Amino acid sequence: MPLLHHAGALLSLALVFWTGSSLFAVLHPGTVRVLARVGRDGETGGPAPASDWRIRLQGGLMSLAGLILLALPMLL
Length: 76
Description:
The protein is mainly alpha-helical and 76 residues long. The protein has three helices and no strands. The longest helix has 26 residues. The protein is elongated and about 45 Å long.
């Protein structure tokens, strides 16, 4: 049973980081766009960056999903 408790704690920690990074995307879409534009070796280029509203929408949906998954054990 302790192993299951530790696995649940690690899952909760991962969901907290998921939700936090999604909220960062909602609050700072320009920074996310710059980070997405930079390649592995620091090169810029590649596909055109997504617009701010799309980054905010995706971040908001991912954040909502993370919050729902975090609250799910309390609802059951």
